[in-house]
Amino acid sequence: MKFEEMGRNTGKKLLLLPGIACTWQINFAMVIDDLKEQYHLICVNYDGFDGDNSKPFTDMITVTEKIETYIQQHHGGHVDGAYGSSLGGSFVGLLVQRKHIHIDHAILGGSDLDQGGKAVAKLAAGLIRHFMNGAAKSPKKKKKS
Predict the structure, then answer these.
(1) Of 9, 78, 77, nearest in space to 37 by CA
(2) In what order do the strands lie in the sheet containing 78-85?
(3) How many whole angstroms separate alpha carbon 57 and alpha carbon 46?
């Protein structure tokens, strides 16, 4: 498992966890330069997806423990934010649930919204907003949602 840190040394710490079969370099390519200007980034590549084929991806708990250990050893057990895309969102959820490190803001990303361009993201967000607003106004739709 590989961790790479970059960005502002004095910035808020943001943990970036990519989706399955993906590296942080691929998953966050469109936003990494902008994020580096504002945050201290802690980027993770999981075993089996970090270029070292001798260590395969094992299981969620083992990977979560490795992330916790790294944050405890290098950041005093605290990050200001953690963003997980797809599988990474599951890791964020486990990190929050286990309470071995403190995360001020946990963000669970869906691959459809964070992988597409601006036009796709706006369209998807508009559709979700329309659905959610409709569900909130209609008891029948609220029950279905």
Answers:
(1) 9
(2) 2-7, 39-45, 12-17, 78-85, 102-109
(3) 7
Q: Encode pLDDT of 16-36 as tens digits.
A: 999 988 899 998 988 999 999
Q: Which residue has the tokens 């609220």?
A: 142
- 86 or 40, higher pLDDT: 40
Domain 2-109 belongs in CATH node 1.10.10.10: no
